[in-house]
Amino acid sequence: MKKLLSCLFAALFVLSSCNKDDVIEVDSQTAPRITLDSENAVYTIKSGRELTISPTYENADKALYVWKIDGKVVGTQPALTVCEQTVGELFVLLQVSNRYGTASEELRVDVVELEIPTISLPVPEKGYTILVGSPLTLKPSVIDTSIPTTCTWSVNGKEVSSEKEFTFDASEAGDYTLEFATRNEDGEDSKEFGVKVCTIDEMPFGWTFDQTVFNLSAGRRIRLMPFDITNAFDASYTWSVNGKQVQQSSDPVYIFSESAEGTYTVKVEMKNSYLTVPQELTVNVCPAEGRYYRAGSPASSKDWNKVYEFLAAPGQFVNERYDVTTMDAACAYAESQMKLNTYVSLGAFGGYLVVGFDHSIENDGGYNIGVSGNSFDGSSEPGIVWVMQDENGDGLPNDTWYELKGSEYGKPETTQDYAVTYYRPRAAGMEVQWTDNKGASGSVDYLSQFHTQDYYYPAWVEADSYTLRGTCLKANNYDQSGNGSYWVNPAYDWGYADNFSPIDRLTDDPNSGAGVNANHFRISDAVTFDGKPAGLKYIDFVKVQTGIQAKSGWLGEISTEVFGVFDYNMTKKK
């Protein structure tokens, strides 16, 4: 203790001798102190934009500043300006040193996407063609942003509206250029297209043939007809078979019923007061039913053995956890899913899956086919089931499809030959817009809270739009809660896949756990184009197709899920 006191007195003596004013002074200089200009040490910057980080400092006279990102020195000044293109996180270390020590702070910079107001607007490849005085209503979709966005419509360079939706109506014929533009502080987007306004004699005729080659067994009839006819006016349709005229009328439908085997050239010519348009078709009349029947054997599998086609409509499960860019790869994906007894989602209306078997499935008058889904009480997503015989014997599903009628078949509210065209979104995270052949339009919503893949538009569809056609049931889903929180998708009586039917599930199990369960189908319910019994003795291929165009609020689109397809005859015989 004495030694310690003597040292202290000595120190005081030295200090006092150095202080000419006889005041004791202790050196107050210490290590630097840093105060960031962000409370949580996290900064946000948009891609390609500059951000300056300007902390405040204490005891920083003559200090050295070092900023590091990933161990690399990026700055030696008190402030740091960051500009980064790549979206993601940057981890920054700031060190400030003087001769008394070093202070450091770790901070994070979150680089986020620019919120550019990207436009999606379905426009025909060659623009619109409309009749003088016919209004054209345009409803673009603009990606949601958190910052104010303006919209403008221009016609021939002149601004005509600042609303998002716009109705164009021209009283004079001619070519018009329309542009829709969006702008905000992050960027802008625009869509320009042409509109040709015609007099009645200038309106172009249009029709669609889904196929030009048809196969059917001898003794059967087939309906030949164009779809999506536009601007026919006073059209007359003349049909000929192998050069011989067989029908001329205003009805575009011809029922082909030649019974002799062979290849027939069928021509149809549309003629109105303004033009003539021809189309040639080929019909192959194949051997009578039974020639290509494939009997089962003890080695036959009850389950499907190949997926021939898988073309989903857009939907929240499309492209999720699988990345395919061709039809072959899509079929391989569907096969791998069903082999694991896992679902294949068909997406919104029209999405479909085609499977075959290693034998023909016989029609014994009862239930013959099973399709597995995951329906439960209040959650039905009905799929239409179609069947086909291999009528030409080539082992491919390129013959005639027959719908298996269900409880809604033939009702006024059920729409046959319903077609929907889906359009590729222009940016990730956008809804998929659609139009139908009844003049309606809508969208498949993007559900960012559940399914975050960039696009719900199938990646294996190369075109910017595609059309799916089939039978559409009237939607019966509803919001039971009244506030959008609880949606119900009730079952239809019978005859549909992924449907909680009280009849064709053949069980009273409530399936409260949403497990895999099957609907069962009778080949004897197959009908021809005009609703008559097809009378098929067996089938070789099955197609399951989403049969409804509806969405249930936050749950998204109603989409049929398929876990498998099987020969129920082999199950019920055991």
TrEMBL record:
Pfam families (alphabetical): PKD_3
Signal peptide location: 1-19
Keywords: Signal
Domain Bacteroidetes PKD-like: 32-98, 117-182
Electron transport recorded as keyword: no
Domain of life: Bacteria
The protein's name in its UniProt record: Cell surface protein
Keyword Transit peptide found: no
InterPro entries referenced in this protein's UniProt entry, alphabetically: PKD_3
